[in-house]
Amino acid sequence: MRQVYLAATGQNRGKTTAALGLLNLFVGEGLRTGFMKPVGQRTVIEDGVAADEDAVLMRAVFGLPERLEVMSPVHIPRGFTKAYIAGDVVEDLPARIAAAHATFADSHEMLLVEGTGHAGVGAVVGLSNAVVARLLGTPAVIVSEGGVGRPIDEIVLNASLFAAHGVPVAGAIVNKVDLDAQPSLPSVLERGLGRHGIALLGVLPYRPILSNPTLGMIAEGLGAEVVHEGPDLDRVIDEVAIGAMEPGHMLERVGPGTLVIAPGDREDLLLALTTAHLARPSGDGPAAAALRSSAAVGIVLTGGYRPRSTVIEAIRAANMFCVVVPEDTYAVASEVHDLLVKTHAADREKIALIKRLVAEFLDVDRILAVATPVPA
């Protein structure tokens, strides 16, 4: 059985996206493929069993037969870290991981092991990604995200910790690359990483649907009071704008996929947004295009302020997504920026896109070549 350990340089870099796409490629090659997430931090209960949500996702998408206890042997719920440091956790956690890993060897040709965050995550409980990869005898592939300096710096830093634990780094994948704006970036990244002896195994292009939250995720993630759902809670937002200027200038900065975050008492701005939304014409002229482009996709009202009923009725008449939250505008903007967008089994359009992108932009033969057999 060959295996590879998929790590990342931080949170929300696209590790789960890469894992889902790679698993699809391995299965498409006709390989009996398994998935394992040795240490999970985001635990859900599925069929009465506690498991990491990525293990639940892969099992559902690919119909994997393994028990969740095997796919997700160790998970770290709230309070676990303090209990471990206090000496209250006496179970041999590495032994549990090793036992789960051993069950794949006789029945699988390929095993994809997904880590948790960067190379050092889990060190507090003695189970960093570097330690677990060494325990399982698997090389690491590191996932980072677009840019030049940051991904190279992050990948090199993480590679050094894997190397310190005797784990070979088979290569790197860079996600969320704007290939339209920077078509030469893959060759730049390949040369930059090559100077550190790290192979670039491919880049994945940026797609908003994979990185940005939907309106429904915004409402749920902020714990917001919904004033009006609008026509489509599954609508992915393209960008965020802060309502901190006079309405005319604000409309110049708003596009059809923009989520506007503004104090609930800025009724002048809210009425301007609703008017622009209602006035969207269907013509082809420049004036019509300008009006359409200034129609936001939704509004988050901050400060706990609810506008007058006439303004709320205007929002509903425009059929715009609108929610109210108690926090101030800056805090809400930070929450939206940091909102972790995860893939769920029900996200069929998103999963189909992930499979297509990974199949198009990553070389499965090259990745299989760096996967190493399980040591005897």
Topology:
Blueprint: E1 2-8, H1 15-28, E2 33-36, E3 39-40, E4 43-46, E5 49-52, H2 53-62, H3 68-71, E6 74-75, H4 80-85, H5 93-102, E7 110-114, H6 129-136, E8 140-145, H7 149-164, E9 169-177, H8 185-194, E10 200-205, H9 208-211, H10 215-222, E11 225-228, E12 239-242, H11 247-251, E13 258-263, H12 267-278, H13 286-293, E14 298-302, H14 309-317, E15 321-324, H15 329-338, H16 348-361, H17 364-370, E16 372-373
Parallel strand pairs: 1-7, 1-8, 2-7, 3-6, 8-9, 9-10, 12-13, 13-14, 14-15
Antiparallel strand pairs: 1-16, 4-5, 11-15
Helix pairs in contact: 1-16, 6-7, 12-14
Rg, alpha carbons: 23 Å
The total beta strand count reads 16
Mean pLDDT: 88
CATH class of the largest domain: Alpha Beta
Strand content: 15-25%
CATH structural architecture of the largest domain: 3-Layer(aba) Sandwich
The count of domains is: 2
Distance between the termini: 11 Å
What fraction, in percent, of the residue positions are helical? 40-55%
The 3D shape can be described as globular
